[in-house]
């Protein structure tokens, strides 16, 4: 990052002397840092100071943030601060919307911050932002800390299972999370076909039922729920593997999902390794 900065932009990095461990996808977390730093550099217009700080933070009581809240616990706290143009309240309220961008036409898709939001929240973290016109912007990321033993155990699990171009129908009404899941699947070697509306996903499936090799759907959505969507898909193609993602997994949920034709239920937040392993398992049974 330092080597790509304009001569009049200085980077101030403050990092801990010992590693701060979190449970997450290394590639996605790298993307979070790069997206935040790239946005900060753009906001400074070639001149200013970029400050990046990583530290451990203890949160003793629920703390409200600009977007959500952070629960009590021990966190790795990443702060990315710039001295750029800043943002007004109207812009702050929309920055995590997919395809919303303040950049000129042709200078970006607007998916950067939506992906950041999706990656962090899907991993059980939280994000805060503070800004004002002419006063720069500060993004603060909170990720739950884990001890080294947990990380070492995860590393022993071996390589992540990969796909071979299989086309996967992906349905989630939360567009940042949908974007993250699609990105994960692409990196794993699959071809994701994302939909943020279950009815639209069903219409596409019914028009071309043989187009898909698997389906991943969130449970709680407007219109058709994940289990309702899975039930219709299963009636059309009983052999099609279906994964259901839910924030709650209990006996009734599992029973309902199984009756709808769901092969496996994954509990949020879902790590990319879990998605990879589950897809490999269900595709192997076809």
Account of the protein in words:
Strand 8 (167-171), helix 5 (175-187) and strand 9 (191-195) form a beta-alpha-beta unit. Helix 1 (26-44) runs antiparallel to helix 3 (112-122), helix 3 packs across helix 5 (175-187) and helix 6 packs parallel to helix 7. With 286 residues, the protein is an alpha/beta fold. It contains 9 helices and 12 strands. The protein is 35% helix and 25% strand. It has 2 domains: 2-152, Heat Shock Protein 90, CATH 3.30.565.10; 167-284, Rossmann fold (3-Layer(aba) Sandwich), CATH 3.40.50.2300. It starts with 8 loop residues before the first strand and ends with a helix. The protein has a 5-stranded mixed β-sheet, with helices on one face. It has a 5-stranded parallel β-sheet with strand order 9-8-10-11-12, sandwiched between helices. It has a two-stranded antiparallel sheet with strand order 3-4. The model is unreliable at 103-110 and 149-153 (pLDDT under 50).
Unreliable segments of 5+ consecutive residues? 103-110, 149-153
The CATH homologous superfamily of the largest domain is named Histidine kinase-like ATPase, C-terminal domain
The CATH C-level class name of the largest domain: Alpha Beta
- Domain unit count: 2
Strand count: 12
Strand order of the largest sheet: 1-2-5-7-6
Strand-pairing-aware structural class: alpha/beta
CATH fold-level assignment of the largest domain: Heat Shock Protein 90
CATH architecture of the largest domain: 2-Layer Sandwich
Fraction of residues in helix: 25-40%
Question: What composes the largest sheet?
Answer: 5 strands, mixed
Rg over alpha carbons: 20 Å
- The gross shape turns out to be elongated
**Arithmetic mean of pLDDT:** 85
Tally of separate helices: 9
Q: What is the rounded distance between the termini?
A: 45 Å
Listing every helix as H and every strand as E from the N terminus to the C terminus, the arrangement reads: EHEEEEHHEEHEHEHEHEHEH
Strand portion, in percent? Answer: 25-35%
């Amino acid at each position: 990052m330092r080597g790509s900065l304009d001569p009049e932009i200085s980077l101030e990095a403050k990092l801990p002397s010992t590693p701060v461990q979190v449970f997450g996808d290394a590639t996605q977390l790298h993307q979070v840092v790069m997206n935040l730093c790239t946005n900060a550099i753009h906001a400074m217009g070639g001149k200013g100071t970029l400050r990046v700080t990583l530290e451990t933070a203890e949160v003793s009581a629920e703390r409200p943030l600009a977007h959500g809240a952070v629960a009590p616990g021990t966190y790795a706290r990443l702060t990315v601060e710039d001295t750029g143009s800043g943002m007004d309240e109207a812009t702050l309220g929309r920055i995590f919307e997919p395809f919303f961008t303040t950049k000129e036409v042709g200078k970006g898709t607007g998916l950067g911050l939506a992906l950041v939001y999706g990656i962090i929240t899907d991993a059980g973290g939280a994000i805060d932002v503070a800004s004002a016109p002419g006063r720069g912007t500060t993004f603060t990321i909170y990720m739950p800390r884990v001890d080294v033993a947990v990380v070492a155990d995860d590393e022993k699990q071996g390589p992540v299972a990969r796909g071979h171009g299989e086309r996967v129908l992906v349905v989630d009404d939360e567009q940042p999370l949908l974007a993250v899941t699609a990105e994960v699947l692409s990196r794993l070697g699959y071809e994701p076909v994302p939909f943020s509306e279950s009815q639209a996903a069903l219409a596409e499936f019914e028009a071309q039922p043989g187009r898909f090799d698997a389906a991943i759907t969130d449970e709680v959505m407007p219109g058709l729920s994940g289990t309702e969507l899975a039930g219709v898909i299963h009636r059309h193609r009983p052999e099609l593997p279906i994964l259901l993602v839910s924030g709650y997994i209990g006996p009734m949920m599992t029973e309902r999902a199984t009756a709808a034709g769901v092969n496996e239920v994954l509990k949020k937040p879902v790590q990319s390794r879990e998605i990879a392993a589950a897809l490999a398992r269900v595709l192997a049974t076809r």
